[in-house]
Amino acid sequence: MKKNIIISLLVVFVFNLNFSQIDRSKQPDSGPDPEIKFGKPKTFKLKNGIEVLVVEDNKLPVATYSLRIDRNPIYDGDKAGVSSILSAMLGNGTTSIPKDMFNEEVEFLGASVSVTFSGGFANTLTKNNARVLELWSDAIINPLLSEEEFDKEKTKLLESLKSDVNNIDAISSRVSSALSYGKNHPYGEFITEQSLNSVTYNDVIEYHKKYNIPNNAYIVVVGDVNTKEIKSLLKENFDNWKKGKLPENPEPVYSQNVNLTEVNFIDVPSATQSTVIFTNNTPLKQTDEDYFAALLANQVLGGGSEGYLFKNLRDDNGWTYGSYSRLGSNRYGVSRFTAEAKVRNSVTDSTVIEIVNEISRIRTENVDQQRLKDVKASYLGNFIFSTERASTVANFALGQKLNNLPDDYYETFIENINKVTGKDLKKAANKYFKLGNTRIIVVGRGSEVAPGLEEIGFPINYFDKFANPIAKPIFNKAIPEGLTALDVVNKYVNKVGGRENLESVKTLVMRADVTIPGAPFIPTAIMSQKFPNKYSQKIEANMQGQKITLNKTTFDGERGYTEMQGQRIEFNESQLNESKNIEGIFDELYYVENQIELVSINSVNFEDAYKIKVTKNGKESHRYYSVESGLLLSTEVTDDSKNVITTNFGDYRLVNNIMLPFYTSLPAQKLEFKTTEFELNKEIKDSSF
Asked: Are residues 451 and 334 in the same domain?
């Protein structure tokens, strides 16, 4: 015991001895910049034209392999989607090894193997090199491309397109590329249901034969390998990959920017937020003299949480979770600059103005020297950290080859970043961030967004969700004279069963299958309500034959909580007040005239709907009722974090003389509830809540 005490005292003494002399009021001097040294790749060619680059690194007993089939970008036209289906089919077994056996052996070896239309990747312990290379090469050269797999992947892609029909992220990505480059450009074309339906199984097989050739292929090997041994293994596994005739795909052409800055607006009536994208095309290449200045200009503007855009739109204004910019480059000199944010509809016009201000700022003002110093340090820190990854070394080695970069390009990277001055940065910003020739692409709800955009002063051109020019839509239709919000609500009540029937319901239980993106199972949601305000909701899943509760929320009229992953969180004051103020199972029975306002007629999923603003207990929400049927189509509620939660309803069916929705979705979360059963007036004990 005494010995331990003595050692402890000695440690304290030494600590104080070493550190008591430090002047903590003075920032320590920075050390010298680290030197970045990559092993120079050893190169050789296989007889079929594959060029191999080997970087020996014996620090760990692992090896990584990257395949890149070097092709010019391909324009698929009316068969757009064929390469996506093919990529999804690849890496799922070979003509000699079934899919399950292939995946099981890869897993048993502790390896990872992937194959895509553009190449592939493999990672393995060095001791398993031979077998992993055998599996990987077999998957590349002899993939199992079954018709059954084709049908499955095509169906998945079609379903994905349908689910994204009103997704503002998917729409903005598709339209911004199409407008920037043109729909007949390999960077501007996109997949549609029509193009996907035209793709046949035979198209995929022929596409694979045409493009899966080794003539212009590269394999980069990084890790604990011996070049002589790896050369022998690669020859053994890849020499039987036969050359073919190189397809004639021209290099992509640079597309000119618009003559004058304009707003390109896409109306999505169901959108609760807007996506704002500033974009212009750029000719930037890594070999350009101002490349490093351009990198830092983008970093200062919107490269991270310290960027001008993030600081303004999130930190100062609280309009978005984040705002960033990106500056692309490639060997063709055909790329784009983008600055973007996703914001509430009500601040869309203000966001456009502030992004203009920040781009103008970096083009006209000298960047603060301390900010420039900090940005360089942050950027280089990430760069140096990335060099610890084998995949980065592989990408650098191949990038150096494909982009004709000097041999010392990455060794002098730090030096070249540090050379950039504020003057260099401003010059690059003026060259690559075009304020006078910019497309401002806005995707959002026109009825709420368009009036504010019109006041900014930029000309506005309107497009549909597939980048086709259209006339300015009529965002709000005229409300019939004399119609009130109470009329709309009463029409709904009568449509779904009448006041007497609805008031007779004292309990309601719903069971539904839940579709969760990426989940390998379909959980069940069970929701119970008891008049006036008791409710519970839980989501269960069967996992390995055992029923597990993933999430549970309960309110007993006085107290409530949410339980997830074994953690119980009690309702906060706001949640308690909201739950206590519930008056019954059907909200519409309890609305009074001064609580509801008929705002407009909007389109909800291509159907005209009356928009009703509801103000209860100091909180506002919106409900949308079909003009034609009177049924509730959608609701919008703003949570405590100012996020708008949209819920859509459909597939109404009669249950005990009451029309109830058998389909519910939360589009922002991509959740779907397909009801399997409703029970009305089933006895539920208070202890269940």
From this structure: yes
Residue pointed to by tokens 């995946």: 103
Q: Which 3 state secondary structure label does DSSP give 671?
A: strand
Rounded to whole angstroms, how far apart are CA atoms 82 and 70? 18
Same domain, 188 and 227: yes
Q: What is the per-residue pLDDT for 49?
A: 93
Half-sphere exposure of 367 (CA within 13 A, CB side): 31
Predicted confidence band at 566 (pLDDT cuts at 50, 70, 90)?
A: confident
Alpha-carbon span 52 to 228, nearest angstrom? 12
Q: Which of 470, 501, 526 is the last residue of a domain?
A: 470
Whole-angstrom distance, CA of residue 671 vs CA of residue 517: 7
Judge whether residue 88 has pLDDT over 70: yes
Structure tokens at 388: 């610890």
Give how many domains the chain has, as a whole number. Answer: 3
pLDDT band at residue 39 using 50, 70 and 90 as cut-offs: low
Lowest mean pLDDT among 50-54, 197-201, 476-480: 476-480
Distance, in Å, from the CA atom of 175 to the CA atom of 267, rounded to the nearest integer, reads: 12
* C-alpha span between 204 and 143 (Å, rounded): 12
For residue 206 the two structure tokens come to 């022929």
Residue 557 CA from chain centroid, whole number: 39
Closest by CA position to 247, among listed 213, 219, 200? 213
Give the strands of the sheet with 62-69, arranged side by side: 42-45, 51-56, 217-223, 62-69, 119-125, 112-116
Residue 687 has pLDDT above 50, yes or no: yes
Residue 7 has pLDDT above 70, yes or no: no
Which of 511, 564, 554 minimizes the C-alpha distance to 686? 554
| Closest by Cα among 47, 394, 67 to 212 | 67
Is 492 found in the same domain as 463?
no
Question: Is residue 33 situated within a structural domain?
Answer: no
Kindly report, residue by residue over 162-178, the tens digit of the pLDDT.
Answer: 888 889 999 999 999 99
Query: pLDDT at position 2, please?
Result: 37
In a domain, 244, yes or no: no
Condensed to tens digits (0 to 9), the pLDDT of residues 130-146 reads 999 999 999 999 999 99
Given a cut of 80, is residue 33 above it in pLDDT? no
Mean local confidence (pLDDT), 46-63: 92
Domain boundary among 470, 493, 516: 470
Which residue do the tokens 């589009």 mark? 667
The two counts, helices (H) then strands (E), for the chain are 20, 26
Residue 66 near residue 219 (C-beta atoms within 8 A): yes
* CATH code of the domain in which 407 resides: 3.30.830.10
State whether 455 and 528 are in the same domain.
no
Q: Is 535 helix (H, G, I), strand (E, B) or coil?
A: strand
Locus of tokens 């077999």: 138
Same domain, residue pair 220 and 272: no
Question: 3-class SS at 529?
Answer: strand
Neighbours of 370 (CB within 10 A): 8
Copy the structure tokens of residue 4.
Answer: 């331990």
Give the pLDDT of residue 11.
32
Q: Alpha-carbon distance 418 to 16, whole Å?
A: 37
The enclosing domain of 523 has a CATH number of 2.50.20.10
pTM of this prediction exceeds 0.85? no
Residues 495 and 569 in one domain: yes
pLDDT in tens, 280-298: 999 999 999 999 999 999 9
**334 plus 216 within the same structural domain:** no
What angle do helix axes 348-364 and 422-432 make, rounded to 10 degrees? 130
Domain that holds residue 568: 485-688
Amino acid of residue 105: E
Same domain for 212 and 273, yes or no, is no
* Nearest-angstrom CA–CA distance, 162 and 194: 12
89: part of which helix (H) or strand (E)?
A: helix 82-89
